[in-house]
Amino acid sequence: xxxxxxxxxxxxxxxxxxxxxxxxLAALSSxxxxxxxxxxxxxxxxGMLASFLVYACAVIWVFAVRSATxxxxxxxxxxxxxxxxxxxVWH
Length: 91
Description:
The protein is mainly alpha-helical. It has one domain. The protein has 3 helices and no strands. It has helices at 9-32, 40-64, 68-90. The longest helix has 25 residues, at 40-64. It is elongated, with a radius of gyration of 16 Å.
């Protein structure tokens, strides 16, 4: 009989944080870059390129910290200033 391996909650939470939280952080950074003091086309391109770096760093951060709680907290702390910068772009 084959036994299915059970992943601890922390590992699943980190995977979700890396995929969804990293994506959200990258999207926020991309939108927030539109507020940079440069032409809009260049700001969009800069934000798009920066989002790849932000996503990679978020994934590394999620798996580098001691607990899944710290990983989520770090993503939220990083997202708050980006959300403040991105809010006027949406409204």
